[in-house]
Structure formats: C-alpha cells, structure tokens
Amino acid sequence: MSSARSIKTVLFDLDGTLIDHFTTIYRCYCYAQEKLGLELSSYEKVRATVGGSVNITMERLVGKEHAPKAVELFRYHFKDIWQEDLHELPGAGRLLQCLHAEGYELALFTNKHGEAARDICQHLGFTPYLKRVFGTGDTPWRKPEPEFTHHVVTEMDADTKTTLMVGDSPWDIAAARNEHLPCLVLATGSHSLEELEKCDPAPEGVYVNIFDMAKSYFGIDLNRDAEDALATAD
Description:
By secondary structure, the chain is of the alpha/beta class. Helix content is 46%, strand content 15%.
C-alpha cells in the first residue's frame, strides 16, 4: 500500500466523498421525470443507478429517447435548489484544511458539472484549500475515461508516482487506475463497505468514513484535531 509520506497531490471526488447531496440530486431526477410525464423512480433505484455523470444516469433511468431533454430539465431545477439538502460530510472541510496546511496540493476531480462543483466548494468553504476543480463539462470527458484522468494529472503538473485519488465508487477506482494512481475509497456514498472491498481492481484502502481514512492513512486524528482547535480558541 502507498504511504502518505510519498504523496504530494490528492485528487478528491465530491459527491459521496466530501458532500452528501443525494436528496437534492434525487429531487432533480424526479422533477425531470414528472415534467416529461414519466414514472418517477424510487429513491433506492436512483441511488443504485447513479454513476458516470447525470447524462449517463439519466439515460439508464429514462432511456436514450428522453435523456437529452431530461438532463436539460435536471440542470434547470438543480440551479434553483442546489443549496437545499446540501451537507458537508463530517470531517471533510477540516481534512482539506489539514492536508493543505501540511503542504499537499489538492484538487477536486468529479463527474458533477464543473460550474456546480465550483459553486458548492465556494459555498462550503472548500475553495481556499483546492488548487483546481475539474468537473463534467470542463472537458469532453467524464470519469472513468482515461483522457479525463490524464488531463487532470497534467493540468495539476503532478507526478503519477506521488498522486493519490480519494473517492467512493468503482468509477473513482477505475479513473485512478488509468494513470496507475493509488486510490482510497469511503463507504459514505452509494456503495457499502462490503461492495467496495469486492471491487476489481481493488482500491488501496477502503474506509468507513473520512475520520477513519484521515487517521489510518494520513495520521491525522480529526477528532483530536477539533478538540485542540477548541482548546486553543478558549
């Protein structure tokens, strides 16, 4: 397994890794289906279907014929409600802050639309710790297309031998493997710990949550870090 001491650049996924935005996303899928007079998908079905970007998920849910208009409706509604039901996953912002302070170069590497991802990072206070935000629409590619990973690594001027991917899904693992990057995954998204442990190719590490990964891999105790920060403030 790779060591945090050998890592200089960390690429983070967004949804399910740093944030929980799924209720908002689900509402947008339902909005598109309702406007097109289609049967609404269940929460469970959408959660099991997401992956590879809105375009791909929408095609799986409504078919190729309806997908283009449905995506348009999704994005229209998303612009109105994106701040609703948006939650930072526990420890996310503090981990970014700690890693940035320790000298790691950080970037967001997501299949969320790039403009939306940047708005979310600004809203949640992630932006000061990120060198770049790469999302769908910023390039012609999506994860896990190899061109997207190569583009991100190149734009970050990063060395693949010292770059790490952190995500929550098989698509993140596959995206990392395109450039032979080690990948850590969190069971905080749409895949369980058991599902992630069975992925092929296997990730470098599978963790229950951000606190588990921070302590086990980076040697950062976010619980203790928060206590120390409060003590200093007092």
